[in-house]
Amino acid sequence: MTNSAELYTELKPEIGAIANQLFDLSEKFLQKQGNFLPHAAVLTEEGEIRLVAAAPPNDLTNSTEVLPLLHGGLRQQAKERSLKAIGVAENVTVTLEGQRTTKAIKVLFEHKRGLTVALYLPFEKKLFRGYILGTPFSMNAQAEVNAWGQNSA
Q1: Which of 52, 81, 136, 145 has a Cα-to-Cα distance from 43 of 20 to 30 A?
Q2: Residue 99: other Cβ atoms inside 10 A
């Protein structure tokens, strides 16, 4: 049986493929708009990455409305298509032990083999335009989408 650390090492290329795409897109949204709504990416069995978004029927929306729709759409895609992994990007606030609160881009990565990892890229708004990106970090997490009906490893 594979433990979480071994599975993480084995799946690191897939984690990186999804996370890098979502971090890059999220950073572009931050630079252009100063914020972003949750968005996602899926990794097909063929190795293709597809971006995914969701929106409620009304034009004015927020993350609280979009996130459950996005999760539901990802679960539906996992039922209808052969997917290996999904990733969901959000703008969050985190506090690391012994440090101050900071904003971060969070990418929650869920793999059909049971691994769930949260990756974070801290950022700060510059005084005059733009953002300063911090050092990324990751940690094991609980599945939020549960696209394959299982808990994280």
Answers
A1: 136
A2: 9
